[in-house]
Amino acid sequence: MQNAMSDRIPFNYKRYKIMKKNNTANTIAIMSVFFLAMTVGGANPIIQKMIEAYPEVSPTTVRLVSTLPSAAGMVVGLLVGTVAGNKVKFKTICIAGISFYIIGGIAPAFINSSFTSVLIARFIFGIGLGCFGCRNGIILRTYDNESSAKMLGIGVTVANIGLIVFQMITGVLGDIKWNYGFYPYFIGIVSLLLVIFLFKEPDPVETAALKSDTENTDDKEKLGALPFIYALIAMLATLWLYPLLTGMSTFIQAKGLGTAAVAGTILSLYTAGGAFAGAILGKVQKVLGRFSINYALGVVVIGQALVLYVNNIVVIAIGAILCGIGYMSITPILTSYLRSAIAPKFLAISSSIILAAAQAGVFLSSYWIKLTDKMFSFYAGTDIDRAYFAAIVMFAVTCIICFVKDVRPKQLRTK
Prior knowledge:
Elements: H1 2-37, H2 47-53, H3 59-62, H4 64-83, H5 90-110, H6 115-131, H7 135-142, H8 145-176, H9 188-198, H10 205-211, H11 226-241, H12 243-246, H13 248-254, H14 260-288, H15 292-309, H16 313-338, H17 347-375, H18 383-404
Helix pairs in contact: 1-8, 1-9, 4-6, 4-17, 5-6, 5-9, 7-8, 7-17, 8-14, 8-16, 11-16, 11-17, 13-14, 14-16, 15-16, 15-18, 17-18
């Protein structure tokens, strides 16, 4: 009997070690997708360089380099959300997305004789980004309630680290020659290999439903309006905030505070703020509860005000960090609410709706700059200055509204 038991213990321990290793490998593959997901902003440090390289093209059109991929991603993301993990495997979608990402990402480095060719490449790149819209759905389907909140925070951190790397490299390479700023997109090859060899498909919807630790109520058996309300908040927040990113190189150079490399560093610090936000998000939500969203909105207000009103590169950097902390907390906070409010079969489409809405905000932000230039014409300064001022006003108003009205699902309002 004793020998039999001693024989079984090593076997069980080995199986545990294998399972743990497989889970770690799977997490690495998932996070490699998050690493790429926000790198559309990698082109922001070279926007001013591209405006100078294509003088015949209006600045608003040139800024489409940063925003057009999100328009393509919005449409593709919604389509992906309806089939991801159900009719089409998550792995298949990720592989297709990374392939589009690589092709469209690196193309402008070599094919740039006309600005139209650059935009076509960015559209292809955006198709890849849209496929990454399933990333939060993968988290929600792979991990339980407590773990998924933590993993969403880690995902935000990893995504921001990816953007930090891209912005710093792009700023340096872009100062040499603007098209060199697209070379970093070759990194997608690494992610492609990780997904092919390490990614493990999440459990089917039926199994996920059995694992869910929330009540199976009638309300959860329909999609409802909540994802669309959260999507609206995410879209507006992105619309108001994104001019900070696309306008930073213009803003910095207009004030005589630096070059594209300096703008790239500032944007990397913004992203570092987002990475820090992801690392502390779980603790913030535990401490602040329903006021977590107010914390996120309020921090953006403070950060944006520092950027706009203090003509000092160090203070602008601090303001950018605060903006990153606040903004990068908004979508994960909203997404984390969904698991308590809807059935597992709706998690992928719901998270895709929110991410697609945020991408819509990115695309519309170029036109938002033009609109705020007219709306706030009384405010002295450039069109970028007025867009920054508009962001302060809009985020402050939304913070007040969310303070008065609890935006959490009813399942969480007693917690």
